[in-house]
Amino acid sequence: MINASELKLTAVSADIKRVTADALVIGVARDTSGDRAVPRLVGSPLPQIETDALEASLGALGLTGSADEVRRLPATDSIKAGVLVLTGLGPVDGELVGTEALRRAAGSAARQLNGLSRVVFALPAPTVEAAAAVAEGVALGAYSFGSHRSKSNAAEKGPLTEAVVATAASTDRALPAALKRAAVVGRAVRGVRDLVNTAPNVLYPESFAQAARDAAKPLPVKVTVLDEKRLEKDGYGGLMGVGRGSSRPPRLVKVDYSPARAETHVALVGKGITFDTGGISLKPAANMHQMKSDMAGAATVLQAVLAIAELGLPVRATAWLCLAENMPSGSASRPGDVVTMFGGKTVEILNTDAEGRLVMADGLVAAAEDKPDVVIDVATLTGAQLIALGNRTAGIMGDDEVRDALKAASDRAGETAWPMPLPEELRPSIDSQVADLANIGERHGGMMTAAVFLREFVGEADGRKIPWAHLDIAGPAFNDGPAYGYTPKNATGSTLRTLLAYAEELAAR
């Protein structure tokens, strides 16, 4: 049902005279070294006379070198390509271009070159790190979702299938591994996007669990699925309470990668509300169709563990997918109900649209039973996240060490996240008059209040509280605006690269 598109990534030397392709991509920067910004070619592989002539024409062509500026031109006589493509690198002072600028420029070009098969990317990539950034940008940008289109329409303008990175580091022994990592990252991110973009009548808890099984088959990963009978028997009150209103019962899916040489165990808990109506506390109709994306956290942690396994990192990684559909019906949970969570704590439901924290609480308690070294949960949890940090920046909360390590990982990955506090005055706001906790509290700072609720379910291992962090990706997970850089419209795959970079740091210790 879900099948992330494949992309072949290879590399050649910066001398591309003999390389044939549908298109050749070169970079145009906004040169900020002078009194005013001017467009300039950077790292052009063309002969100098052609480079000079093209550079002199950039202004007349209306090119500024700004990010997301992609222009097709007739190919010159010196290259064996159908068209020449200029992609904006953004502001550059000198010859060095940052890795994230390379990712975005390559990704923007790849995204806008749908319909071509083989493209050479001759951006300024003199090192393995730079070449890997170009390759990763291409892998992220070369995406389209056609699963729900008729066969004739789906085949019209698919993403490119082969990208060749021109780099002076083509003979470096470290490059093949870097290209493999870029391919794995791209495949995993596209896998998240495919899941999030899938219609909710096709992707629901049971079919999501099967998609996890199918995706894990080629890898040394064990998948365990708890169905509604097992969840009811074992007391998973959060999952059962949220899922009770739907004809499609909930699931808890454990995806475990446990290599023999692993010395560290990270548990990843993901919110998987396959569709969120708000339940009895019904959401407004406007844009409710976007609530198919409320399972992005589960999709992210699933694909993160699969990517960790495919790369063979010496880290045990376990994903917990907390899957339910939040629907209003005669059997749905009501405001005022009290549910008993897995582990025994009771929660008064004051708002059935604060359902994500209920399923996540069950998952956090279950994750703690394995005594991991660290627990990270990922969720499209609150609208307050968008109010606080906007559409593109994830919020990170939790224990200082884990929070700060995740922020550093997001910086390395080229993703945008920001650490937020958990003020002590928020905890009393989730007290209940009739149960251990209420599922909502202080309205102001709602992103942090939700994290304070989750913190109550982070368990202990060997007498110590398990280090924990929470990532709220409500905004970054779904792009309802125009595409940009390597980010398409709709599902983005945000935060997967941060989790992978964090796992790689654990593996390097």
Describe the protein.
This protein has 509 residues and is of the alpha/beta class. Helices cover 32% and strands 23% of the residues. It has 14 helices and 22 strands. The protein has an eight-stranded mixed β-sheet, with helices on both faces. Strands 1, 2, 3, 4, 5, 6 and 7 form a seven-stranded mixed β-sheet that branches. The chain is elongated, with a radius of gyration of 24 Å.
Number of helices: 14
Mean pLDDT: 95
Helical amount among residues, as a percent range? 25-40%
Radius of gyration: 24 Å
Biggest pleated sheet: 8 strands, mixed
Straight-line distance between termini:
38 Å
Strand content bin: 15-25%
Oligomeric status? single chain
The structure class reads alpha/beta
The main sheet orders its strands as 8-9-11-10-14-20-15-16
What is the count of β-strands? Answer: 22
Give the uncertain stretches in residue-range form: none
Concise overview:
The chain has helices at residues 48-57, 99-112, 128-141, 151-154, 175-197, 205-216, 228-234, 237-243, 296-311, 356-368, 383-389, 400-413, 446-455, 496-508; strands at 8-12, 20-31, 38-42, 70-74, 80-92, 118-121, 162-166, 222-226, 251-257, 265-276, 316-326, 338-340, 346-348, 374-379, 394-398, 417-419, 437-438, 460-461, 464-465, 468-472, 478-479, 490-491.
List keywords for this structure.
alpha/beta, 14 helices, 8-stranded mixed β-sheet
